[in-house]
């Protein structure tokens, strides 16, 4: 049987988060063990409801299509505020509810979704237990991340982080040794050589909690993407020490390549209407996304950053952390290892990515343990994203 990679998705749904979760859920290569929730695109109350509704649509869909039931992911509630600044939200893009105002019209949340989020342990009402579409936990998101990392062998579980990094930073602060058991952390965030989106200099997720982003980038100090580096990490973990983390970012530089066009949406997605619970749900928010892209950016395609980050995660699975993955990987992606830090004080530049580009530093710094070493994906090639999204989620059978 195919071995699936266990993953945790840390998220602030969010319409592109919804597609990212759906892509991961439907992929045969990963097993979502936990979904951990953070403030971000919208406040935590909306995030909780949206996550419950996304998982409900997926679970309903499995039953509607008579597909075998999947392992229910744990849903863990996390940080409602950034570590040190006031919260910022992105309702201009995602709508006040975070999902393109779907609750106004097409889609209804299960009436008792909120009751399902309460962890009742042994006391649980059996009527609730029978209808579960996710598992609850007594732990908050940061503790759940640490708990899940302890349930598997070191360097086998990936974290996909597609919201502000508050929960990850808290997990690292609480227990850096356990945090460093993660195989890698694949993050949507940052703007390296391009302008920001939430403001001139910063991308939304890094700007929404710059202190957390800075802590997480700092976990990459001393990381080497080589067989020796992999063995070194494993040795440190086995000795009960903190190991360097493999921090991967998909900044705006790269993520603008992960698009779906309005014409593809109209050709492949819209006609599916409400023919399954999942298509009904997705169609409820996708029209909104294309309208916003046109209105705000005059674009007739939508860059689905978070889902594109999940695609990167899926294509990195074969690399266990020693840099020896699929030999064709480098034909598909452009990346650099950068000493990247995040501005936490700037008046104009809060959340900005700062890169040490001094040539004379290059030979010694990345490997002497003093510099961050973040793998930054600056471009993708081949336009696979559209085909994979349309085939995996919408059964479009492109190229099949
Ligand atoms: Ca997100």
UniProtKB/TrEMBL annotation:
Biological processes annotated in GO: purine nucleoside catabolic process
Keywords of the record: Glycosidase, Hydrolase
Domain Inosine/uridine-preferring nucleoside hydrolase: 7-366
Top-level taxon: Eukaryota
Cellular compartments per GO CC: cytosol
GO molecular function terms listed in the Swiss-Prot or TrEMBL record: purine nucleosidase activity
InterPro entries reported for this sequence: EF_Hand_1_Ca_BS, Inosine/uridine_hydrolase_dom, IUNH, Ribo_hydro-like
Cleavable signal peptide: none
The family this protein is said to belong to: Belongs to the IUNH family.
Protein name: Inosine/uridine-preferring nucleoside hydrolase domain-containing protein
Organism: Absidia glauca (Pin mould)
Encoding gene, per UniProt annotation: ABSGL_11927.1 scaffold 12357
